[in-house]
Amino acid sequence: MTHKHRHHWLKHMLLFFAAFGPGIVVMLADTDAGSLITAAQSGAVWGYRLLLLQFILMPILYIAQELTVRLGLTTQKGHGELIKEKFGTYWAWISVSALLLSCVGAIISEFSGLASVGILFGIPEWVMVLLAAVFLIGLVTTGSYRSVEKVAIFIGLFEFMFFVVAWKAHPNVKDIAKALVSVPWANSSYWYLMAANIGAVVMPWMIFYQQSAVVDKGLRPRHLRQARWDTAIGAVITQLIMAAALVATAATIGKTHPGASLNSVHEISQELTPFLGQTVGRLIFAMGMIGASLIAAIVVSLTAAWGLGEVTGYKRSLCNKPSQAPWFYGVYVLIVFIGAVVVLSGINLVHLNVDVEVMNAILLPVVLGFLFTLAWKVLPKKIRLQGWYWWVAMIVLSVTAAFGLISGVFGSL
């Protein structure tokens, strides 16, 4: 390798590591407690019939999130701020209202996952929720963007435990192949879980988060190529984790109690542990769920604070101290508080998590509609949507939004 090539390679790697983070963080957060519970419920009720969907959603997820990267890098503005600038305050509030609804639903999901892990080890729900809330508030109010990102990635890596869970469940390849061609299209509960899986992949808060994160991290247009790789790698990883969670329950609960609906995370773990080993199985499952819940809790709370700030105009950066941006940190703490209170109210958490993902699917037309229109109109000509990719993005996002809405409404009937 010549000196020139070494210099070029080194420059490329430095740019990659500079851009690395927002895509991985948001994708690991995408596989949150609610998503994992939805995947587990899908495997328990329908076996492997929803497995193929997890792989189909990989490119869809990438297309949506890559557009947020383009918008953030080139405009240096958050998603809500751009909507306000291009469409006016009215539409900005509609968009951020959908965002806040999604964030509140998500933070409830995260705390429900953490509370359920506590139950596995005999820890009272209120203790687990309180510890998580203190950790979340302490992390964000005392750190910078980069420190929060590093902690989030480390926590998110615990989700890889679900690959171990799936492997130890010993799925049967013939059963998988048979299930892929046996789809119960006429069953409304199948459509409902399909909508939940779609809503568990492309979520409103993901679009707002990644666009705000690349701005807060200080990335610029020169990082576009590397940021795309960051997003693509994350999209593959998150859907493989979802597939692993589905396979684990399909190969175990789906075979021993086919069609059985799960009522708690504790029940999911209890059904899995005979196959995985009582102590080791419980520990592996708990580590995966903690990682999924905590990283998503960080992301959705930050997203709510960023998104609301982009519409109202208050200071909104992790570079500011709490005394310099009281509204930003106040909204973050409020979202954490709401999630904790609702979870401790005693509602059915598995059903709630699935309902939250269906709500996300129903909100997709609003979220993806704004995203595509902004990418079409705001981006500079050099990287604007055009040619064949314009058609691909338009068709993929339109079909995803329509399918999420239709399956969510049909499945709810």
Report on the structure:
This protein has 413 residues and is mainly α. It contains 19 helices and no strands. It has helices at 3-19, 22-30, 33-46, 51-75, 79-87, 89-120, 125-142, 145-156, 161-168, 173-180, 188-199, 204-216, 224-251, 253-256, 265-276, 278-312, 326-343, 349-377, 387-412.
| Largest sheet features | none
Helix content: over 70%
Q: What share of the residues does DSSP label as strand, in percent?
A: under 5%
Count of DSSP H/I helices:
19
Number of strands: 0
Order of helices and strands: HHHHHHHHHHHHHHHHHHH
- Which CATH architecture is right? Up-down Bundle
| The number of domains | 1
CATH fold-level topology: Amino acid/polyamine transporter I
- Considering the protein shown, what is the CATH homologous superfamily? Amino acid/polyamine transporter I
Brief digest:
This protein has 413 residues and is mainly α. Helix 2 (22-30) packs across helix 16 (278-312) and helix 5 (79-87) packs antiparallel against helix 6 (89-120). Helices cover 80% and strands 0% of the residues.
Which features would summarize this protein structure in a list?
mainly alpha; Amino acid/polyamine transporter I; globular
Topology:
Layout: H1 3-19, H2 22-30, H3 33-46, H4 51-75, H5 79-87, H6 89-120, H7 125-142, H8 145-156, H9 161-168, H10 173-180, H11 188-199, H12 204-216, H13 224-251, H14 253-256, H15 265-276, H16 278-312, H17 326-343, H18 349-377, H19 387-412
Helix pairs in contact: 1-13, 2-8, 2-12, 2-13, 2-16, 3-11, 3-13, 3-18, 4-12, 4-13, 4-18, 5-6, 5-16, 6-7, 6-16, 6-17, 6-18, 7-17, 8-16, 9-13, 9-16, 11-18, 11-19, 12-16, 15-16, 16-17, 18-19
